[in-house]
Amino acid sequence: MRKLITRRGYSVLSSLFVFVTISIIASEFIFLTISMFIFSIFLVELLIFIFSVRELSSVKIIREISRRRLFVGDIISSSLVIQNDGYRTIGLLKLSKDVPEEFQSLEDVSPHTINFIPGEKIRFEYKLEALQMGRINFGKLELNLFDKFGLFYKTREVNNKDLVSVLPDVRIGRGR
Asked: pTM of the prediction?
């Protein structure tokens, strides 16, 4: 349960319980009814979020890379296609760790979507510059799901073998 509730969710829940205890001690039943109403909204949001978590496993991610071998400093284009193959609409979906640490994104892309309906495809385009050499795995991604109030979250890690070879830049040495 600890990985399901955000800090905001913990603060809302703890302040709600403090409000309930103060209203019980002070015998103010109007505040108690209001706090129980807010707590029921919290539980309904949790129930809706649990149904969205079930649909998170049906989201398909496909990455396309322009080149598989390049030199340090070269620029490649990469695209991500996210498709909802489930039966329900998913809330706020955010993609993190979409650019490996060995690459630098040349464009400011914020890969997130709101109300991802079934059958919908979303495409994100990147221009990446290679900073380090080696065999780099482009298949490690994290898909984060949030509810509309930011109280709950769930992370799905996607691991594919999508390797790119980055070679040292020896083109300058040949000219000398």
From this structure: 0.75
